């Protein structure tokens, strides 16, 4: 299991999250929600091993992330950061193939190709394999990078060991149809046995696609549980300083939160 154990997460002298205690469960989607600056990206960096806790620890299968060899850790967890830049004229499938670099000497070339094809298919870009990455739209490029992250931990069938996919605001700047594609892909990976952590700003997308929600504000975990338990007008309204109303999705029964138009946001 991937976990933070009483981790103090800081950027330089500034403590962002003073007591992060969180376990990522294989087979589920966990959505991180909270205002800008709440600590969502910091939490993901700690879970990925990019940011070492000032105290406490981040661990995979009971072993500190800092003690894992880089390639071995890369085969178990994959990260899609908020910003991805690539200036070279690579074909789409070559960009996705970058995700397989940790599998050199650990997988046959046929396995690598199956992973690349499977990842592109999962994000709806199988027909784009030979296209020039630079000529794609911004949203298409974002989906290529998601495919690269998927290919990094891809294994046919259910993984022999739990894998983890960490996505930092993957649906920003995407239209509603592409947002659905990305989040359905996250659900697909969870159904394949991966633990998926995804930071979002859209409360209703989190309610629709996440198994578990963590609401973060001002350096603390405000609430954690199912979307129905966490995404109440009272809790979400207090965190965002915005009066809210709650409805139910007519098909799924998931909570749908709307701003109360008669009241001004709280400063």
TrEMBL record:
The keyword tRNA processing does not apply. InterPro entries: AAA+_ATPase (IPR003593), ABC_transporter-like_ATP-bd (IPR003439), P-loop_NTPase (IPR027417). SMART domains: AAA. It comes from the Bacteria. Keywords: ATP-binding, Nucleotide-binding, Translocase, Transport. It holds the Pfam family ABC_tran. The keyword Protease does not apply. Residues 2-243 form the ABC transporter domain. GO terms for molecular function: ATP binding; ATP hydrolysis activity. NCBIfam families: PRK13548.1. Part of the ABC transporter complex HmuTUV involved in hemin import. Responsible for energy coupling to the transport system. This is Hemin import ATP-binding protein HmuV. It comes from Hypericibacter adhaerens.
